[in-house]
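Before the break, one more example. Copy the sequence into your notebook; we will annotate it together after we see the structure.
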Amino acid sequence: MTIGFEISATDGKARRGRMSLAHGVVDTPAFMPVGTAATVKAMRPESVAETGAQILLGNTYHLMLRPGAERIAELGGLHRFMNWDKPILTDSGGYQVYSLAGRRKLDADGVTFQSHIDGSRHRLTPERSIEIQHLLGADITMAFDECTPFPATHDQAAGSMRLSMRWAGRSRAAFADRDGHALFGIQQGSTFEDLRAESAEALRGIGFDGYAIGGLAVGEGQEMMFGVLNYAADQLPADRPRYLMGVGKPSDLLGAVMRGVDMFDCVLPTRSGRTAQAFTRRGTVNMRNARHGADSRPLDADCACPACTGYSRAYLHHLIRSDEILGAMLLTGHNVWYYQDLMAGMRAAIEARGLEAFAATFHETQALGDIEPL
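Here is what the structure looks like once it is written out:
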C-alpha cells in the first residue's frame, strides 16, 4: 500500500480506523462533504474544516470541463486552488457520464460525451481519467468505471461489471504510485451476489489501496441496499478501507457502518441545506414551514454549530422565506456539522463496543419527530 490504514477497534462488522494520506489523516468511519466544482456549495473551506470534516470529494467530470485539469495543475493543484490543505478524493467521472443518458456513447475503450455546459464533445478513458485526477493532485484517485443502472438484468449487470473490471486494470496500469496517494477500485455487479463476488475477486487480483462499493443508491431503496451490503463489504479485503459511493441519509450511514463500510460521500446534506431542509437528532426539519416563524429556540439544542448556537429557528425561517443567501449558508453548515457529529458518535461507539446501543438510541430519537411548536 502507498497509504497507511490501521483498524484500531471493531464492533461486530463495524470498524474504527485511520487512513494516513499525503495531506493528513482521516479517521474512519468518515463522511466526505461533496465539493463538486472545487467548492462545498454555500461553505468556505475553513467552515467545512470547523465541522470536523477531514476529507472532501472533488469531481473529475465537472473540473475537467471547467476550469480544466491542466489549468488547475498550473495553479498549483486542487488543494491550493480551493484553499483546502486536508485530503481530497476525486471520483473518476464515471457516474456523471452515466447520468448524461442521451449525451454519451459508450464503447469498449471509453466514453464520448457532450458537455452539459455548452454541448462540446469530450472523451474519457481510464487513462485520461487517471491523468486528470493526477493533475488535480488527489490524495485518493478512483478507478474509471461504468455505473450499472438499476434495475438491470443479470446479463446486463454482468456485461457492465466486466467492462468496469477491464477498465479497472487499465486504471491501475495508468496510476503513478507515490507515497500518501491511493488508487481505489470500484466493485460493481448491481444486486447480484455472484457478480459482486466476481467483481471483488477481479479487483483483488489487480490490487488496490482501497475498495469502493459502486452501483448502489441508484433507486434500489434502503432495504435492498442493506441486503447487498450484508455480503458486498465482506467480499472486499478486510485490511483496506471500504467506501460506499453516493450514500446517503443518516440512517443509511449507520446501517452501512454496521455492515463494515468505512467511508461515504453524498450531496444530501448540502443540497438539503439549500432547500430549507435541516437534519437534526429528532429527524428532518423543513425550515420553510410557518410553525418556526416565532420560535426563539435553536434548531437543535444539542448541536454546537454556528446556526444552532447563534441563531433562532425564527431567524433561520425568516432567512429562508426571504431567499437570503445566509439561510442556505447556515443550514448547509449545520447539516455538514450534524453528519460529522454522527460519524464521530459512531467512531466513539465502536471504540466502546456500544454501536448497537448507539443505533437503538439513534432510531428512537429520530422516531420522536421534531420538537413541538411553541
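The longest strand covers residues 4-11. The domain at 4-266 is CATH 3.20.20.105 (TIM Barrel). Try to locate both features in your own notes.
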